[in-house]
## 1
Amino acid sequence: KVVKPIVISTWDFGVAANQAAWQVLNQKGKALDAVEQGVKVAEADLSNPTVGKGGYPDRDGHVTLDACIMDEQGNCGSVAALEHIAHPISVARLVMEKTPHVMLVGEGALQFALENGFQRDNLLIPSSEKAWQEWLKEKQYKPIMNIENKSFNTERLPGNQYNHDTIGMLALDAHGNLSGACTTSGMAFKMRGRVGDSPIIGAGLYIDNEVGGATSTGVGEEVIRTVGSFLVVELMRQGYSPEAACKEAVERIVKKKPETAKEIQVGFLALNKKGEYGSYALQSGFTYAVCDEQKQDLVIKGKHIF
Ligand code: SD4
């Protein structure tokens, strides 16, 4: 049976990331390699203040990164609150491949990365430092959505740069195998030590090679509470389409916390074993990028509840 490879990822910055993943998929490479190569593009993009180097720091000025990766065999690796390393996704993959563990955090994750040849880097670039200095003037700690969200005033945002957050990527390769990756600098100006959904297997990312994969973006706390990506995959197992599964997962958030849900953004993205995909978000403004043999730069507007 011929499988048509496909890669999808969150937000329109997923287009460039998908194209890097496509280089791997198009040569019959592994989905695991594709998603790692793909999200590394977003991690390296300095104009993107929500992933990798150039990400906004926590409230104390430290850039701390969260990432995880999962393959078709259910192997997974994750790092949380990792500092000074520009490609947390590659450290997460190494945790998966070289250790008996799934997750390393903070100092231990940094030590592991340095011992394995990763270079120490300064992740706080001048534009992000400036945005942080601006934020310090008022120190308002509240989650800020993607820029299209109607519930906040974008003019007050430093650099007007909040229009993206986490990149989550799902790929199906020519061998019929699924893998996924998720990487972020987390919520801008978060508390020191705060970890979101993105490095939590089952919350920010989940893959089951029998069924499909899912990933999430937005306010991680609500995704962790509902074990969102695992839920989406389990719903697909029960026969839900990717879109219907994502819709049910965001509705679960609305049901649990109706007032909170109106004020925040969460988006889920899913891909099933047949290569069908779909998404659903709480608010408008969520987009995702799709890349297959036909078209490498498709951007789709996600459906939404509010
Ligand atoms: C997180 N889902 O850490 C990630 C990205 C984010 O607002 O900060 N969204 O919760």
Note: Confidence is low (pLDDT under 50) at residues 147-163.
## 2
Amino acid sequence: RPRIGILTSGGDCPGLNAVIRATTKTAFWLGYDVVGFRDGFEGLVDPIRFQVLNPRNTAGILVQGGTILGSTNKGRFAARVGESGRVELDPKLVDRVAETIERMKIEGLIVVGGDGSLSTAQQFHEAGIPVVGVPKTIDNDLKATAFTFGFNSAVLCCADALDRLHTTAASHQRVMVLEVMGRHTGWIALHGGIAGGADVILIPEIPWTYENIIAKIEERRTLDKHFTLIVVAEGAHLPSGGLVLDDGGSQNMQVRLGGIGQVVAERLEGMIEQDVRFVVLGHLQRGGGPTTFDRVLASEYGAHAVRLITERNFGRMVCSDPPDICHVPIAEAVDQIRTVDPGGSAVQSARAMGMCFGDTPG
Ligand code: F6P
């Protein structure tokens, strides 16, 4: 039987196993065998790191978090920008991958990954390796797709945390700061904040000030609400002049060491007469099983990726354009990230409900 290869690369997220299962089932009914390469791209250069997948050994994984194939997000395959300004991989490594694909008679390789892994996949494509991409990141910031699977599960995690913080914040009349993931964008903070009823949402796309947050806290007090829930994306920028390191280090380093949630909480506590606490949600957002939305999206992506291979439509990435699943050139998906539109409907609706983004008082 002809063979399809699949690997999962980069930070894990709920739904990876659903893609693996969907790929395996779809391929099986079309008469293909599936080879799962282990530990991301590493499995392509080490002959022992693969396993043959079939409907039996992938049964039950739809609902499981993580990836049965393992993943790596650093190392020799990490896409590096070369002197030419383009992402470059070691040509010897690419040759070894091409050799594996040929030797194992893989007709097409499915790379499930985020921005970095898809850039690597694009390099493979340019070297003539038959590859298709499946977009993955909890951050939902990949261009060319409305949704990445894992995002909805992360939003649920954020909303659940806010639900819990709500009751304890109200009981103790505290300000709670919840730091969520989102290195470059505020998608999780925005959607999680709306779903969990946050009062203040701080994201990289909207500059904010402490004064505006405090005005919101004060406004709530006049409405007899003596607690406030703040969600901050890890990549949100501190107000300029906010914090300078003694050793002359960068503001980003300060954020990385302390975490922006902690920085915001400590700063606020020094400015208001109220207890402030912070929580870093961290990798809880990446763990656990996928929501039903992510199960459907991941399954559709897997089935669609197999179809692209059977059509020999390589160098493409499957994507979501609701209500359809489509595909675009991988190159188009990796050249920039998709940021939250400050004038978009989610931000507008949140503002209309009185949520504060820290850019205006209250
Ligand atoms: O890219 C997804 C992401 O979840 C980011 O939001 C976060 O900064 C990063 O992964 C954390 O990755 P690591 O597992 O390397 O700490």
Note: Residues 241-250 have pLDDT under 50 and may be disordered.
